[in-house]
Each structure stands twice: as structure tokens, then as C-alpha cells.
Amino acid sequence: xEFRPILSAMRRNKVGAILIxxxxxxxxxxxxxxxxxxxxxxxxxxxxxxxxEANVVVIRNQWVGNPPxxxxxxxxxLAALRALPGVVxxxxxxxxxxxxGGSTTGLSLHPDQKNATALASIYFGDExxxxxxxxxxxxxRNFNSDEVVDKVGYTDLKPPAALIITRALADKLFPDGNxxxxxxxxxxxxxxxxxxxxxxRLQVPWVGAGGWGSKFNDNSLIAPFHFLSxxxxxxMVHTQPGQAAAVTQAAQKKLFDISRSRVIQRxxxxxxxxxxxxxxxxxxxxxxxxxxxxxxAVTSFGIVGLTSYWVAxxxxxxxxxxxxxxxxxAIIQYxxxxxxxxxxxxxxxxxxxxVSLNLWMVNSFAMERLHTSYTFIGAIVVLxxxxxxxxxxxxKAAAIPPALATRAA
Amino acid sequence: MFRYYFRLGIRxxxxxxxxxxxxxxxxAVGIGACMTALTVFxxxxxxxxPQKSAQLYAPQIDNWGPDKHNGGSPDRLEPQLSYxxxxxxxxxxxxxxxxxxxxxxxxxxxxDPTQKPTKVFVRxxxxxxFPMFDVPFKYGRAWPASDDANRAAVIVLSHEMNEKLFGGAxxxxxxxxxxxQSYTVSGVLDExxxxxxxxxLAIRPFxxxxxxxxxxxxxxxxxxxxVGSTQCNGDVDPGWEGRLRSDCIWLQFWAELPTAADxxxxxxxxxxxxxxxxxxxxxxxxxxxxxxxxxxxxxxxHIVPSEVRILILVSFGFxxxxxxxxxxxxxxxxxxxxxxxxxxxxxxxxxxAIFAQCLIETGVVGLAGGILGLGLTALGLWAARSLLAKQFVAxxxxxxxxxxxxxxxxxxxxxxxxxxxxxxAAHVQPAWQLKSQ
Lengths: 409, 437
Description:
heterodimer; A: 12 strands; 19% strand; B: 6-stranded mixed beta barrel
């Protein structure tokens, strides 16, 4: 293909060509960052919690006032929940995965360490916790029932008798393995606590992109406490498959039959909690996808419009070329090559813009660095878009009859 | 003249409906995307208390020491204060008004025993809270300062809570049962809902407002635990007393400082306070404090989520593409009419007249794009409301300012994009055009 005539024709239409190139550049910059963001948010919202989400029901219970017999009430509630048909197991805790609220502690390997070795979220639980969440114990043992004691409010600072930690936390604390049997020190505790078991996975309660917890997403520990306070307690109920809805109904009724002096504010499955927790991420994905589609449509309409105008402007010249022996394909090729040159220039600028846009987002929004593959995909999409968009005006140009050259202007 | 150009503009636009339609659609889509993002952003970054935001200040004191802020605070300051420091600042009375505060989650016992109890968020705060934040009262008044000192069991209800509990009647003097305690209503607020809830950003700053208020001293006295964020560092003794003595940070504090000089004095006071703590042996580091007014505070706390800022960026990029698109199409359209323009020029129209005519034509396109874009904005906001969490966009509505802004943005941007094509039109050589006809 001969480039020189294309370039010299373009020089007479500088502004139009620049307009298309810059449009394609901006489209590319937005497109690959948006695709990257979409991929990240989708990956984020698919991270597993480690629990059997579809079959775990969360019941949020808060006693009216601060009854003195809370320990007995808790035991009564749990016995009743475990006895319900369709229930596998149940346990009380202070928070649950994807709830967005909870406690964090720093764990150290030595008592006088200045900075903690690892941050971890704290779940209170008992010997039923592993079964009631559907976690997988991969090393060590479950709590013994004599290790589980009452913890009266957050200001009750007695040390736990034992800890069960996640595999990620174990790897962070003891990279050489065999965490079970080792002792750790917690910031506010005066003594050491033995690790008795390791579960495969239990996500921290916070899941927001770049938010608290995003740096230690799988570092959790279970401390053998029954939490008694005027704060809400979460009863986690593991149901048999497909029984979640029925158990939800029955559990609420049962609990109110035991005592009406309580607030059951929410009851939901972990699957529903996931929907809620990642709603904004999903929303952002949909919005970005729609904007990307609109952007591609607008850009391609712009190419169609301007190229059609160029075709109309050059009708006579095209007719003359056809009369001088150029084939229809040669005319189509002319416009396609022209677009390729413009789109190529646009893509080059676009890649630079995409990278700088991403760098700016990395600095201001704790984004990750753009992978090269995304700029590559973006560039290909933009080049293809140009080729497809230019096809219709190019076909119209090819249809111009050679006889046009012979007619007077 | 203007009317004639306007008619000419309409006629010329009708000559090539497809091109005109494309231009208007491009501008409308761009404006729609931009205004949706902008409306959400404006709603989220608005000033919650415009008449007083420059007089209300949140102090920060480093009570942990320079090497203890490992949770990602590069300025070595945390957003909340310890009980010790809040009490110290409240006792000092160094501002015109001041109060510490926190939110607590309580159970509300209904008067009718057949009804189930419900949960309520109660704000524990000093009586200064109400005049300091210009909180309007419908019935009664804020509790007297003596109630703060005496830890009285009094309560102020929000407008909504009074509607719910007492059907909107004057409930002053009636009692409300929270947990095991009874509280006497001292006042009922009129509708008041600052967005965001600037004085405590830890729990859903765009969510529902506080529904009840009780004296800070009463809540502390009754050991009512806080909800929101609690961060502890260093030794903490067990029990409620241990929490109060500790350096855990869990309280908010605000001061009213009417003039810049007052704020300057308060800054000095804060530094003196921290230096004093160092002298007393509580802090082992030089004083490190900060004082920010409401708007500085909202910026510091990154109240606008990064999602919204990303959408702003993307939508403005999108608008730019749409405008360049419209500009290209306008160029094509105007240059396609070079012949007409040549004839008009030859018949005596000045360059200025051609320029004005084409500019009005682009203005008409912009206007149409803006009006259509406004409809798309309404659609976009509806979509955003159903796609994103409630607290994100519940407050985003198209008001008169937004409407004007959208149309102005559309016309302004389109005319700006039309200047180059128009300039080209004005420079059409009449002789050359006539010759080639």
C-alpha cells in the first residue's frame, strides 16, 4: 500500500484526523483502566470466606438492657437452635465474615516486641464454631469445651486459653510451618496463648476494596469466648443444604418463644450478606461496562460520520481514481489504511495516557498497577473498532462509479 | 437578527437530520454521564452546615507516640480521642462551646408490652451540642448544663423518633425506656439531618441520623458502650474504669471557635495541653496536635468514596470524547455547506455575521443535547440508586442548580467545541466557492 498519497491527503484534513486520533486515545485510556478495574472488582467479590455460605444463617440478637443471667440465656438459646430440625450446628460470636465490623489485634512472637508480627481479626467462638461455619480444620484440634469461657463486654480482657488460627495467619507467624503448639503474644495480654488448631480459611469481616483488612484479608483467629454484653451477639446457624429459609423462620419464632425481651434485628444467610457487602463493587462494574460500551459506540459513530464526510468530499477524486484503473478493493483499502494510521497514532498516545491515568489512580485510590496485557487488549480493540467503523463509508466510496470523473463538476 | 439566525440554524439542522441527531445524541450522552457523576459527587461533598462550618473545629492529639501509628496514619494522628483527653478538653473550657461525644446502641422498650423491643442509636453528648450545631427544637429545649454535671437521666428525641413514639405530640416530660433505664424527655428536635453526619463519620456518615441524645456524663456513668470505631494501643486495664483510664481512642470532640483568632488561640491551647501531658509524664514525646474545621475535616477523612471519584474522572473523559465527536461532525457539516456560505458572503454577509450564525447553530445543538442529557441524567441517577448501596446515592437529586448546570455545561461545551468549525466557516473564500459551483 502506498502511504504517501494518504499522508498528503491527511495533511489537508489535519483537524479531522487529529480529532479522531485523540478520541481513540481517550477511549483507549478509559477502556483499559475500566477493564482492569472491572476485573479487579469481580475478583474481589469472588474471594471465598471459608464458610459454607449458602447454608449458614446469621441471627443478630441483642438483649434488652444487660440481664445478669446472660450466660444461662445464651446456653438456652444455643441448645434450642441446635435442636431445631434442619440445623447442623450453631455458635455465638461477635462478628461474621463480610459484616464490615469487628475487632483487630496485633500478634507477636515475643512478649517485648515493639511492632506486631501480624494483624488478625478476632472471632469469638466455641467448640461448635468450626462445624457451625463449615470451616476445614487442617492441623491440630478443635477447642475443648473447658477452654471456652464467658467474656463480659469488650472491656473484659482475660486472655483466651487457646487459639485457632487461619492457614494464612499461621504462614505469616510461622513461615517454617508447625504453628500448632506454638505460643503467641497479643498486644493487650500479659501472657502467652497457645495455638491449638489451624483452619484452611476464614476471611476477615472487612471486604471493601483497599479498606481496613485488605492487607490481611485471610488473617483471622478464633478465641474461645462466649461474648456476653449489651452489644448484639450473632448466632451463626449451619443448616442442612436447602434448609436455610425454613430454619430462619423457625429460629426466630423459637427465640421469641424463649424470651421476648430481645431485639432480633437481622437474619440473613452469608450468601445474602455477600450480595450486600459487594453491592457497590458490582454496581461499579455494571456502570463501567455501560460507559465503556457507550464510549465505543460514540467513538465509532464519530469515525463513521467524519469518514463519510471525507468520502463525500472526495467523490470526484475517487471517481477519477476508479476511471484510471483503481479497483474497488483499492478504494476500500485506501480508507482502511488511512484509519489504521490514525488509529495507530491514537493508540500510541492512548497507551501513554492509560499508563499515566493508572499511575494517578494508584497514587490517589490505592489501585494496583495496570497489567501490560490490558493496554495491549485495549489497543487491539481500538484498532479493530476503527476498521469496523470505517468499513461502511469505505464501501460507499468503493461504490462511486468511475463515470463520475467524466461529468463536469 | 438573532431570531433570523436562530431560524436559519434550525433550518440548517433539519437539512441533515442524521448528522444533527448524531451530534445531539453524542452531547446528550456525554452530559448525562457527566451530570450523573457530578450530582452524586456534589451531594456527597456538600457542606453539611454551611452557616457555621468555618467556626466548628475537630482537634486531634497524638496520645500514642510517634512510632505507634501502624494502622496507616502517615500524619501520626488518629481521627478520635481518648476519654482522658476529651475530659481534659471539656474541663478546660477553652472554646466558646465544646463537647465530647459518642454513639451507643440501645434497646428501646415499647410502652405497649405486646410490641417487640427495637434497637436505637443514641448519641451521648454535652448540652453544648445543640446550640453549637444550630440544632432546631420543636418542643422543649436541650437539657440544662446542671444535668450534664448531675448525670441526669434526660433525653432529647429526634423529630422522627418523636413521630414514631408519641405520634408527633409534645412529649416533653414523658419517659422513654432504654434497656433497664427510664429517661425523661427534655426536648424534641425539629427536622435536622446534616449530610454527611460530619461530627461522627465512623458509622454510615450518609445513613440515617441520630434518633436520641443523652448527656455524655450520664452515658459514661451508666457504662453504655460505644459503637463505631475503638482503637487501643498499649496497656489497657480490664473493666469500664480501665477503658476510661486507657489510651484507647473512641470519642469525638468538637469546639466552636467563632473567629480565626479564637482558632489560633485554641491551637496554642491544644499544644500547651499536649506539652502539659508530657510534663506530667503521660506523653513521652513532644506535643503533636492538629485542629481542622468542618470542610477540612471532611476532606481529611476522604468522605467521598474513591468509586465516586473514579466515576467523575471516567465521565469527564467520556464527555470529552463526546464533544470531540460533535466537533468532528460539526466540521463535516459546516464544510459541507461551504457553497451556501460562499453565496451568503458574496451577497454581502460579513465574516462576523457568518460566525454568529454558525455559533447560534451550534448553540441550538448544545441546547437540545443539554435537555436530552438532563433526561439521561435522571435515568443515570435512577440506575445509580438501584445499582449502588443506599447510603451512597440516596441523597443525590437533580435540583435547580444541577438542571441549570447541565444545560449551561452542554451549551458552553458545545459552543466551545464549535468555535473551530465556525471559524473555518467564517473563512470560506466566497470567490473560490462561487467559481467551483
